[in-house]
Design a protein that fits this description.
six-stranded antiparallel sheet, alpha+beta, homodimer, 2 domains, DNA-binding, 10 strands, globular, Arc Repressor Mutant, subunit A
DNA sequence: GTATTTTACTTGTCATGACAATATAATATG
DNA sequence: CATATTATATTGTCATGACAAGTAAAATAC
């Protein structure tokens, strides 16, 4: 459900949606408050009811607002927390107010293991870039991360220095690929000696292992990432998920 | 984004949506296949284009289908995996093909800690039911779980035997409360001796700790659950999340 | 004062219609 | 044969309109 339409102009429904979002973010509309009705929005913005409705519906789908037939729409009490562990590591850490940085252990072009090839839906004989980094916040290692990237999507990727560059930014600007969806499987395990050494831990310490797949808007698997996080220094936040 | 409208009849768009979903589930429409166009669906089902479009849009919002302007709609390659750790434990474990069961350690009515009261958005002086269970699959303990439940939402909850009853079923049938949204924060830590004993682990083993909030359709916090999972026997699957 | 009915407001569903934007295929031209 | 133009298909946005369903408030009846 893209909230930012990918077009050459900004649709009316989107402008109204952003306006309402702004009012919620600024506290002009508080949790529990009723939003203007579809008819009121229609009159206020000079649009049809279907356009007003579309703006409200989008906020409902994002879990920001809820509506009840015959009564109205209301701002959700529980604010959505920023998810972490799903987007760009750089973006995650910056959003938490820390300074992200990375140390590249290795970036190489290679043959994938069978499981990796399967998960990435690689064509026969397809290669991957394997990017191994230690991720840090405020210079303290928090994650050991290996990204498996379909080589056919990213020719020339090895020319970049991912100590400095953000992988997601390179996806977007160089290759025109927008990370749009992600899912993850998460387990706890204990740190092996080599991993413990890289993360400044004791062997046997508890670590969080997340295997995340990232998809483009057309559901191409654009990245498989295995991250091992210090149990004590990183909390994984899922986004709000619909379970009904 | 409710996919099952809560009404006394089934809307046309929903029937079409379910029909398309059935074709995808049965393999009649395979990953990568193009779906019928809006105009074709319109003719085939004898509905307006807006109704056809609504059905397709709902599948897009669920991450099952994607569409491209001027080209068409397509079945996503990557199938959505069943999430786990977000819904009813019973439902999760049953979906994995195991037999869920629970041993109640304790169910009591008590004053909440400040953090619990805040997260549950309890009224001043509000009490909680604290339900402590060991969750099992095929009789093997996999999680130590404490649920904090706002007492005002569930009067008389302590009359139920949650060794046998599903909490979510009781929510729905007895109290008319539908779990609709959830989010979780997840960490890894190590098992303390008492916990290790309850889960059949060694002290110091890695465990996954998930703190999950569950919301009704009107975003009331209906449950706060702290689950500690064996690192080796439980993998937490997030659903597909929109990150764009 | 209470119960019932009516009214008003609001969201939900669906129709018809039009045009814009995007993309590809077919056709025309040099 | 290559390039440009036109046609076609499809999704995206927006309008007007109507009626259903749900809910609460106001008015009326007893």
């Amino acid at each position: 459900m893209p909230t930012a339409p990918n077009r050459s102009f900004t649709p009316l429904y989107y402008q109204i949606e952003q306006d309402l979002l702004r009012q919620i973010d600024k506290g002009e509309l508080k949790p529990g408050d009723q939003l203007p009705s579809e008819a009121q929005i229609s009159r206020q913005y000079g649009v049809s009811r279907i356009t007003a409705r579309r703006a409200l519906e989008n906020l409902v789908q994002q879990g920001i607002v809820y509506s009840r037939q015959g009564i109205g729409s209301f701002v959700a009490y529980a604010r959505i927390r920023e998810m972490s562990g799903f987007r760009s590591f750089s973006e995650d850490i910056t959003a938490k107010g820390y300074r992200p940085s990375s140390r590249v252990v290795e970036l190489s072009l290679e043959e994938p293991e069978a499981d990796v090839a399967r998960r990435l839906q690689l064509p026969e004989g397809g290669k991957i870039y394997r990017l191994h980094r230690i991720r840090q916040m405020d210079d303290q290692p928090v994650a050991d991360e290996v990204a498996y990237l379909p080589a056919h999507l990213y020719p020339g990727l090895d020319q970049y220095d991912f100590s400095k560059a953000s992988l997601y930014e390179v996806f977007r600007t160089r290759y025109g690929i927008n990370p749009t969806w992600a899912d993850a499987e998460i387990e706890a395990t204990f740190a092996a000696p080599d991993l413990a050494q890289r993360l400044g831990l004791q062997p046997g310490d508890a670590v969080l292992v997340a295997l995340r797949q990232t998809y483009s808007a057309t559901f191409e698997v654009i990245e498989l990432v295995r991250s091992v996080y210090c149990g004590s220094r990183f909390t994984f936040f899922t986004g709000r998920q619909f379970i009904g």
